[in-house]
Each structure stands twice: as structure tokens, then as C-alpha cells.
Amino acid sequence: MNAKRSDKIATGVLYAVAGIIVLILASLLLYILVRGIPHISWEFLTSPSKAYQEGGGIGIQLFNSLYLLLVTMIISFPISLGAGIYLSEYAKKNWFTDVVRTSIEILSSLPSVVVGLFGFLVFVIQFGYGFSIISGALALTFFNLPLLTRNVEESLQAIHYTQREAGLSLGLSRWETVMRIIVPEATPGILTGVILSSGRIFGEAAALIYTAGQSAPALDFSNWNPLSVSSPISIFRQAETLAVHIWKINTEGTMPDGIQVSAGASAVLIIAVLLFNFGARAIGKRLYKKMTSA
């Protein structure tokens, strides 16, 4: 058997394996979407859920998921940006940076249920926040930091060193060079990572069961007092998210139409995560084209 034939066989095997994996994933997604999309309607997306009776929706859970995502990103993004800038632009190769990078790798490999139990012990019990949005957001911050920090660091390191030299040669300080030249150039990659991590947070369930809670109290959208538990912007209220709601429906069985609600909620969750992923790619490509053509 000559080298060309061996190469063709190996390439064919790789294509076949990749095709099988794509087929399995596509079949799983299509199965969820086909079962769930017929149950999605405007009423389903906006009405509150119901227990022990039919006709419930996912309005409050969907709002909770989006609001929790917003609070989590407000907390985690500045920390990740600072850590990524430090590791990329300022950190020297010594034992301290090795410890930091090792800690990031350990955090990224932790199961989400472990992060949830950590959040339960520290934020829910020790800090006294109880089951609340702030407890869930702080727990998800630990879950999200490794991915965001590595994304920021890699995006900054992808910028050619001549950009840094150009800034320094113009009389800018190192910090000014980073903030005015390097970070803006790395914005497409950073934004892509932020959107991808948002999709990961949006679909998280295990960490939120023990921190954000498993109930979705009715919200009064005329009440904007952040200290009121019925206010939609309160961070101290319980907030069952969409992913937790799906888990709860399938474990408790208190809804007569639980199968339909679960199928519809699962389809909404899948569509949202797909939008996050495809949106990240589209926005990243558009920003990159604008910056390269400018």
C-alpha cells in the first residue's frame, strides 16, 4: 500500500468519524426541536408557570434566566478582563503566575454541581444571602471566570507584538498602550468569548439549584424597588431559571401537561443557546472585517 492510498484511507476515516459525530448531535437537536417547537407560542413564552393544572408557561423563568445572566456578566466580566490583561501583558513567568494558571485550570474542570454546593455553603448560608439571584450570580461567576479569563488572555496574545511597540514608540505608557490599542484590537475575540460564555451560563442548571432556588414567585413589574422581593430587579429574591424549571418538571411531576411544557421549554433553551453561539460567530466576524478594513 503506497503513501497516497494510506493518506486517502486515513482522511476518509476521519471524515466518517466527524460525520457520525455531527449526525448524532444534529439528530439530538432536531429531536428536541421537533418535539418542542409545536408547543411554543407567545402565551407560552410570557405566561407564568402553573402547578397541578394545565396551561402554564415559562415567562417568569425566561426573565429570571436573562436577568441572572446579566447580573453574572456584570460581576464576572470586569474580573476576567483584569485577570486576562494581567496574565497577557504584565505577568512574569514565576511560581505565582503558575499558581494562578493552575487555579484557572482547576476551576474550569470543576463539575457545576460542586460549584453549586460551594455557592450554597458560602453565599446562601455563610453570607446569609439565601436562595437568591445574587447567590446564583456569585456561584456562576466562579463557574464562568476560567473560560472568560482564558478567552481574554488568548485574544490579547493574538495581537501582534508590533502593535505594542508602535504604542510605546509614540510615547504611550504600557497601560495606555494596552487600553487604547491592544484591548480595542482584541475586542472581536473578547466579545465572541463573552457571548459564548453567556450561552453556557444561560443553560446552567446544577449550580443554580442550590443557589438561586427552585421557585419562581410572581413578579410585579410596576414595582421597581430593588429591595422588594416582588420586584423584577431585586437580586435578593428566589429565581428559578429555565434550565432549573425543566429539571424540576421532570423530577416532581406536578404538572398534568408536564411533558409538553418540558418539551417546549427545552426547545426554547436550545434555540437560545444556538442563537448565542451563532450570534457570537457572526458578530466576531463582522467586527473583525470592520477593524481590518478600517
TrEMBL record:
What name is this protein filed under? Phosphate transport system permease protein PstA
Pfam families per UniProt: BPD_transp_1
Q: Where is the signal peptide?
A: none
Q: Say which domain of life the source belongs to.
A: Bacteria
Keywords in alphabetical order, please.
Cell membrane, Membrane, Transmembrane, Transmembrane helix, Transport
TM annotation in the entry: 12-34, 66-88, 109-142, 259-280
Instruction: Please provide, in alphabetical order, the Gene Ontology terms of the cellular component aspect for this entry.
Output: plasma membrane
PROSITE patterns the record matches: ABC_TM1
Localization recorded for this chain is: Cell membrane
In what residue span(s) does the ABC transmembrane type-1 domain sit?
62-280
Q: Fetch the InterPro entries from UniProt.
A: MetI-like (IPR000515), MetI-like_sf (IPR035906), Phosphate_PstA (IPR005672)
Is Ribosomal protein included in the keywords of this UniProt record? Answer: no
Biological process (GO) annotations held by this record are:
phosphate ion transmembrane transport
The family note in this entry says: Belongs to the binding-protein-dependent transport system permease family. CysTW subfamily.
What organism is listed for this UniProt entry?
Answer: Enterococcus gallinarum
According to Swiss-Prot or TrEMBL, what is its membrane topology?
Answer: Multi-pass membrane protein
Primary localisation category: membrane
One of the entry's Gene Ontology molecular-function terms is: phosphate transmembrane transporter activity
CDD domains noted in UniProt:
TM_PBP2
